[in-house]
Structure to design on (401 residues):
């Protein structure tokens, strides 16, 4: 049995149960065609298949890193198939099966400390903190008619940095589309052949201070860059078929989202506010980059509130309106944004996915910080782009450091 090929088949079959489960597929079109012509898959049988493949791993003769990667992926796929079959999996166990991390509620004292930091750095005024933060965000919004030009300008600058610092295939390209009516702010569709289509959701107001992170996350050095480099290395050079498919709700997602969220830190680093201000200035847009950096540092840790919201909704049984109120209180969100977050958290495919951002960033930022003193950050970060690392491998290296 070609275990990697059967793993790909399993992922394609799960996509027939939930469209979008396959985030990207660059493998043999004939294989996908075979799966699409099969009878409608039985989710319980797919869970059995995932368990069987995991049991075959030790005797498959694969290198250790391939075995570890597939073991984590198949654990996630088994849980997804069980849920599709109607099994009631406790939410915390679900997240652990998907991503290899055990989650818990954050510390509200840490959120309160972030609020105090924000109160110190936000422009002064007679309003309460939530209103001051909302006023700052309103001033920080990108004019809707300038969104596309801003995205292209940021992408061009980041692409130059990544091409020089990490390397890209000569013929790689990213196409940007402005879309509406989606539960996310941005999405990368990797098309194969070193090409991506990145969709930016115009339903949400996009802030100038966050657009560098969004473009870095989706393109350079985030999802597009990772797909290109693994396509060129693991797939084309090493023939690892398991990397021709990227599957939602698996450990690779946590690492992919974590590295993508670290994109600006891995390319521009401190001073990104001044860098962005220069780009915006060339477009005739005023932006206080130094203030944006101070606000970003002050808000550190508040991203965990989104994971709390998922736990409260799916594990503690909170009412949707109470979850919205929690998001508004601790993340200082306007109601419209909180409702959009709730939409994402309530989606049957994406309900657990917030943990990939929260836990992925926490794990990988700690791992990068724990590198040897003489090792440049780029040398450590490029491993995320090129190697089939796993959550367990990263955690083990971090513990050893």
């Amino acid at each position: 049995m070609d275990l990697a090929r059967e793993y790909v088949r399993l992922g394609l079959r799960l996509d027939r149960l939930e469209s979008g489960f396959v985030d990207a597929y660059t493998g043999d079109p004939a294989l996908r065609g075979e799966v699409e012509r099969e009878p409608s898959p039985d989710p319980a049988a797919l869970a059995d298949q995932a368990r069987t493949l995991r049991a075959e791993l030790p005797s498959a003769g694969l290198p250790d890193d391939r075995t570890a990667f597939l073991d984590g992926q198949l654990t996630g796929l088994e849980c997804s198939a069980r849920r599709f079959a109607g099994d009631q999996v406790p939410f915390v166990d679900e997240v652990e099966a998907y991503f290899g991390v055990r989650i818990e509620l954050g510390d509200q004292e840490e959120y309160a400390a972030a609020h105090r930091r924000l109160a110190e750095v936000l422009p002064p005024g007679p309003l309460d903190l939530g209103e001051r933060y909302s006023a700052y965000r309103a001033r920080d919004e990108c004019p809707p008619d300038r969104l596309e030009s801003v995205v292209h300008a940021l992408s061009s600058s980041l692409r130059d940095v990544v091409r020089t610092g990490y390397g890209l295939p000569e013929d790689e390209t990213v196409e940007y589309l402005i879309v509406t009516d989606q539960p996310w702010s941005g999405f990368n569709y990797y098309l194969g052949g070193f090409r991506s289509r990145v969709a930016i959701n115009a339903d949400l107001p996009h802030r100038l201070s966050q657009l560098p992170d969004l473009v870095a996350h989706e393109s350079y050095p985030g999802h597009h860059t990772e797909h290109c480099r693994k396509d060129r290395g693991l797939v084309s050079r090493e023939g690892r078929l398991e990397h021709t498919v990227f599957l939602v709700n698996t450990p690779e997602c946590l690492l992919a989202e974590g590295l993508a969220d670290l994109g600006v830190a891995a390319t521009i680093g401190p001073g990104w506010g001044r860098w962005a201000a220069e780009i915006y200035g060339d477009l005739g847009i005023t932006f206080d980059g130094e203030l944006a950096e101070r606000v970003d540092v002050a808000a550190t840790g508040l991203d965990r509130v989104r994971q709390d919201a998922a736990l409260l909704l799916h594990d503690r049984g909170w009412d949707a309106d109470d979850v919205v109120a929690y998001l508004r209180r601790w993340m200082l969100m306007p109601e419209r944004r909180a409702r959009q977050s709730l939409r994402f958290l309530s989606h049957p495919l994406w309900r657990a996915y917030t943990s990939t951002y929260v836990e992925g960033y926490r794990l990988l930022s700690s791992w990068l910080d724990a590198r040897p003193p003489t090792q440049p950050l780029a040398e450590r970060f490029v491993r995320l782009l090129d190697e089939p690392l796993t959550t367990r491998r990263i955690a083990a290296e971090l513990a050893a450091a």
